[in-house]
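Propose amino acids for all 294 sites.
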C-alpha cells in the first residue's frame, strides 16, 4: 500500500509531546469536553464491568485499571459498588479531569440507575471551594504518567484487573511485560477482563482492517508516535502472549467480527503478507473481551 507523506509528517510531529498535544487540540476542535456523553459512556461501562466481575466479586476487592483515560468516573462508581481500593495506571500524565461538577452529575445519574453512591462519593475529596476533586489515597492509588509495563504493585495483591480499549495501544515490546506483571500481581483465583478494540482507529468506518495493509516499517513511519497508534496484535497473538506469561485460563467473550464475509475477503486480499495468510476467523474480529483467570 505504501506510505502517505502526510501521515509520515504528522507522525514526525507527534514525536514531540508539546506538538502532540497541539495536534490533539486541532483534531479535537469542536469536540469540547461533553459531560453528558462521557457520563452516558461511563454508566454503560460500569454496567458491563459489573456483569463480568459480578457484584459479589466486587465487594472488598482491590481492582486495578490500566489506561483509565481522562477521568476516574468508572473507578469511582466501582468503589460505590463496594470495591475496597482502585489502582489506576495511566501513561498520560496530563489525564486527570478534576472538575467537581462532572463527578457530581455522574453520581446523580448513577444513583438514578440504582448505584448506591452519595455526594461526595467515597474515594473523592472536595477542594475547599467545592469546585475540584482529588482522589483520597485511602481508596485510590493513581499512577499518572506511568507505563503499565513498569508499574508493579505487590505480587498477589489484586483481585480484578481490567482495561477498556487500552491493550491495542500498548507497545508490542511492552505487551509481554504487561501480561506477566498482571499475572504476578493477581491473587490465585483472581480475574481480568480487558476489552480490546482491534479495528484501525483512523479508518474504523470505511475499512476497519486498513492498517493491516502496511508492512511493519510503513506503519511505524506513519503512526508509531501518534495517539491512536496500534500494536496491530490480533486475537490469537494476544492469547499467545498471555499464555506465555503464565495465564492458563485465557478465553474470549463478546467477540465482535466484521459481519460481511465477502467484503472482508476483499479487504483481506490487500493485507500485507504478514497478515494475509493467517486464520481469517482470527483476523475478522474487530473487538473482544479478553477474560483471564489465575
Ligand atoms: C483509547 S484510550 C481509553 C481510555 C479509557 N479506558 C476509556 O475507555 O475511555 C487508551 C488509554 O490507554 C492509555 N495507555 C496506552 N498505553 C498504556 C500503557 N502502556 N500503560 C498505561 N496506560 C496506557 C492511553 O494513555 C489512553 O488513556
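Proposal:
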Amino acid at each position: 500500500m505504501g506510505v502517505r507523506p502526510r501521515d509520515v509528517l504528522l507522525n514526525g510531529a507527534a514525536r514531540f509531546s508539546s506538538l502532540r498535544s497541539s495536534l490533539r487540540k486541532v483534531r479535537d476542535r469542536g469536540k469540547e469536553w461533553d459531560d453528558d456523553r462521557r457520563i452516558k459512556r461511563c454508566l454503560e461501562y460500569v454496567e458491563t464491568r459489573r456483569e463480568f466481575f459480578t457484584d459479589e466479586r466486587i465487594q472488598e476487592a482491590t481492582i486495578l485499571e490500566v489506561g483509565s483515560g481522562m477521568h476516574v468516573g468508572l473507578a469511582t462508581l466501582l468503589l460505590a459498588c463496594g470495591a475496597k481500593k482502585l489502582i489506576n495506571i495511566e501513561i498520560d500524565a496530563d489525564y486527570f479531569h478534576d472538575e467537581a461538577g462532572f463527578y457530581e452529575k455522574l453520581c446523580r445519574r448513577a444513583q438514578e440507575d440504582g448505584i448506591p453512591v452519595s455526594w461526595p462519593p467515597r474515594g473523592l475529596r472536595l477542594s475547599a471551594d467545592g469546585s475540584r476533586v482529588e482522589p483520597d489515597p485511602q481508596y485510590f492509588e493513581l499512577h499518572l504518567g506511568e507505563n503499565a509495563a513498569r508499574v508493579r504493585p505487590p505480587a498477589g495483591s489484586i483481585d480484578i484487573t481490567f482495561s477498556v480499549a487500552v491493550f491495542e495501544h500498548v507497545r508490542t515490546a511492552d505487551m509481554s511485560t504487561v501480561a506477566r506483571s498482571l499475572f504476578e500481581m493477581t491473587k490465585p483465583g483472581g480475574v481480568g477482563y480487558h476489552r480490546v478494540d482491534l479495528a484501525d482507529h483512523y479508518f474504523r468506518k470505511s475499512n476497519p482492517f486498513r492498517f493491516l495493509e502496511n508492512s511493519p516499517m510503513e506503519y511505524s513511519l506513519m503512526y508509531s508516535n501518534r495517539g491512536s497508534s496500534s500494536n496491530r496484535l490480533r486475537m490469537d497473538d494476544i492469547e499467545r502472549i498471555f499464555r506465555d506469561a503464565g495465564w492458563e485460563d485465557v478465553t474470549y467473550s463478546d467477540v465482535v467480527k466484521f459481519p460481511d464475509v465477502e467484503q472482508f475477503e476483499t479487504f483481506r486480499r490487500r493485507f500485507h503478507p504478514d497478515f494475509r495468510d493467517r486464520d481469517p476467523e482470527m483476523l475478522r474480529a474487530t473487538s473482544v473481551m479478553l477474560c483471564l483467570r489465575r
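The pocket of S-adenosylmethionine is lined by residues 66-69, 89-92, 95, 147-149, 164-166, 169-170, 174 (CB under 6 Å). Strands lie at 62-66, 85-90, 124-126, 133-135, 140-144, 158-164, 186-197, 249-257, 285-293.
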